[in-house]
Amino acid sequence: QLMSWVIAALVFDIALAFSLAFYLNRGTVRRLNILMQNTQRMTRKDVLLPVIEGSDEIAQLDHVFHDMAAELNKAAREKQELFDMVSHDLRSPLMSLQVFLELLSLGALGELPEEAKSETLKAEVGVARLIRLVNDLLDAEKMSAGKLSVSIQEADLKSILEQSVQ
Predict the structure, then answer these.
(1) What is the DSSP string of the chain?
(2) How far is residue 106's CA from residue 101's CA, in Å, rounded to a whole number?
(3) Engineering a disulfide at 142: which of 57, 69, 147, 162 sits with its beta carbon 3.0 to 4.6 angstroms away?
(4) Is the full-model pTM beyond 0.85?
(5) What is the pLDDT of residues 29-58, one digit of tens each?
(6) 143, 140, 137, 101: which is closest to 122 by C-alpha?
């Protein structure tokens, strides 16, 4: 009879151990799945699932993950604000300056001495280069955001090289 009780207790202990392992493992797997879903949501720029409650390592990792996602969103907003500022606050005055210099060199504001015309032309070239740089910067931002369409076409290599040298 004692042997029956020992075997029954052993079977009960084994069943209890498997039940506890299954219960604890299921909770851990569920919480890790939440972390994986949040990772996928972040790459799609979706809203993250709520923060996992608790004070264990998985909950701490989830808190850090949410903080990181918030910082990335903040950085993306600040980057967009920078490009908006560059687009508006830098390109617009440069365009106005370019138009003014063109009018000046065409004599719309009176005839200029030769030396002044030469300096005006140099300023026009410099302003045009700055405008191209700003436009290239904005194009690079569009490209990284996947909002720039590219069309491949033939080009004259000699003229491209000449422009690069200038």
Answers:
(1) -HHHHHHHHHHHHHHHHHHHHHHHHHHHHHHHHHHHHHHHHHHHTPPPPPPPPSSSHHHHHHHHHHHHHHHHHHHHHHHHHHHHHIIIIIHHHHHHHHHHHHHHHHTTTS---HHHHHHHHHHHHHHHHHHHHHHHHHHHHHHHTT----------HHHHHHHHH-
(2) 9
(3) 147
(4) no
(5) 899 999 999 999 998 989 999 999 989 999
(6) 101
Q: Judge contact between 137 and 86, C-beta under 8 A.
A: yes
Q: Please give the single-letter amino acid code of residue 109.
A: L
pLDDT tens for 55-68 read 999 999 999 999 99
The pLDDT, as a whole number, for residue 83 is 80
